[in-house]
Structure formats: structure tokens, C-alpha cells
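Hi P.,

Sorry for the delay on this. The queue was packed all week, but I finally got your sequence through. Input first:
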Amino acid sequence: MLWNCKPQARAFRYVGHKDVVTSVQFSPLGNLLASASRDRTVRLWIPDKRGKSSEFKAHTAPVRSVDFSADGQFLATASEDKSIKVWNMYRQRFLYSLYRHTHWVRCAKFSPDGRLIVSCSEDKTIKIWDTTNKQCVNNFSDSVGFANFVDFNPNGTCIASAGSDHTVKIWDIRVNKLLQHYQVHSGGVNCVSFHPSGNYIITASSDGTLKILDLLEGRLIYTLQGHTGPVFTVSFSKGGELFSSGGADTQVLLWRTNFDYLNCKDMIKRNLKRLHFDSSPHLVDIYPRTPHPHEGKIETVETTDTTVRTLPDKGEEINRYFLNPSLLSPDCSPAALKKKTEDMSDLPSESQRSIPLAVTDALEHIMEQLNVLTQTVSILEQRLTLTEDKLKDCLENQQRLFNVIQQKS
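Then the structure:
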């Protein structure tokens, strides 16, 4: 179902799959919609009234997830046939497969720069793949449970996994270390979503709750109870001011937050201007406040057109061919720009500040130096890890030689 909430609630029902739909995702521009199904196919839809679609067949088992690269040129699909497949969206053709998992692959996600793919499987491993040489370059394993879902943080330096063992784990892929380990749910964690700032993560669990974690302080800050059964999916909006969740109670809930989408420098400037630190983020509204009664009459349009539509050649402009104006980001509207200008005008002028500008510049310089030190420490940790691995291999080889000598003597 494709929902258009403005100016009035309206739903478009696209018909094409022959079994349960397991995953859907819009392309970055919003001009395409990909869906995965247990019927072993992937479909690419044009999100309009007609709902034309193209069908991709390559997997030999149910497909569990779909994910577009950040530039929209590629699509990664994960399947119970133990493989990840990558597709070219402009030519609508299959490119290559990634094989190393020994059990069903539950999820596959592109990194923000598109150079890596992370995947999780019921073989209790999480693998990092290089899209250039199409090889597995890293592997994280767990002896307790497997990951149901995995994704990169917004800057691509860390990954988060949602575990069947009720845990959420944050891994640093630069130094191959487990950074944070949360066990805040009483049921399996089915999905996670990073806030665009990268400072918060929200989790959805089979225990019927959503939880928001502060990654900077490493603690649980909110538990949200709105669903009456297991929660299967959750996702922040592009700007982070909203997030939606869906569960076994057949409800999709829309939630509102006031998380500030600011980088470190902006946060320092704002704190100096206000002369106090920002209060911790909190939920200012929840919609719907009560379980949705489904009494409102919603216009539904069913589409069954499955004609394959060829994408334009490289020379053509794909935006003009596919783009649906209703799906454009609201940040580009004149009203949004005007609002941003008004927000900036609320800040005090230079003459109203009680802290000199020189102090602000000094603090910014300190932050830059701290960033450099952090990167240096990360490099040193990585080198130390490599040295430890080599020493471990040497000790193991010496032990083998010693055992061989003892047996001969």
C-alpha cells in the first residue's frame, strides 16, 4: 500500500506479488519503489496512480530485504538462498552475487558512500563486503544469537545490529571493535534506525515496545508503548523529526520528536548563544495517541498494471522521466526556507553575547584538534590490533612446533 496523506488520506494498492511482501523501500529521489517478496521476486514500481512495475528474477528462495544505494544507481537484495545480489537500476539488470553466508541472509544494506555492503545471516555472522572487488573484507560473529537487521550509521563508520538474543550492538568497522552492547528488550530485536545526527538510535522489538538509545551517553532514554503486539519495523524520516513503526497489530504509528539535527560546531555555537546547554531531547507529540480505530473512510485505488517499463538511457535525465513532485522533500519549499530564516533571526546578535567571539573560535579550534586526536587514536588502535593478531599467530605456530618436537622425542 502506498499512502498519500495530503491533502486528504488516500491509499494506492499495488498488486503483483504472489506471496507475502517482506520489504519495501523508496529510492533516494522517491521516483521508484522496490519491494521484496517470499515469491522469490523483486519488483520495481513507479509510485503513481497506474503503479507500473518491473519484475526481477534471480533468487531461488524468498527475498528478505531490498536497499538502494545512496545515489540510487544500485539495489541490493538479500535472500534465503544464502546470497546477496546487486542490480543496476538504470539498465534494470542483474550485476553480481555475493556468496559467503552459510544460512539464510536476513538483511543487506549499502554504506552511505556505496563502497561497502553489510549483511546479516542466521549463520550468526555479520559480513562487510567491498563493492569494488566484490569480496568479503570483514566478519563479525556471535555465539549466542543471530542478527535480524543491520545498518550503517549516517557517516558510515559504525554498524548497528538487532539481535534475536534481545540485544543491540554497535560495531566500529574501522578498528573491528564492539563499541556498545545494549540489552534493554525482553524479546528479539527486529529492526533499528539511526537518527540523521547519528547520536540516537531507535529499536523495535517482539516485546511490543520501541526504545530510544542515546549513543553519546550510552544509555536508554525512552521506552515507547503504542503497539499491542510485536513491533517489526521502525524508521526515522529523512530529517529526523518523525519516525514510524509497524507491528503485528496491523497498525502503522507515526511519532514526532524534537531531536536537534546539528553537528558539533553548530551545537557549540547554539550553546554559547543561549549561555546554557540544550535540554535532553524529548517526545513532544505522539500520533495517534490511542490505537487507530480504522473508522476513517480512506479512498483506496487498486492497481494491477505490471507492464515492464524500460528506464531511460544514460543520456536522458531520469529525474524528469520518473520524478513524482508530491514526493519532493518539504525542506525545499518556500515556506520551509522562510521558517529557517526566521529561526536564525531569533539568535542573539554579536553585541548581545556575553561570551566574546574569540572564546567561540578557540573552542571550535579545540574541537577540531580533538577530532584529529580521535582519528589518530583510531589508527593506533587498528595498528595495535594487527600487531596483536600477528603475535598471536606467532605464538600458535611456536606451540605447534613445540608439540611436534615433543611427539618426535
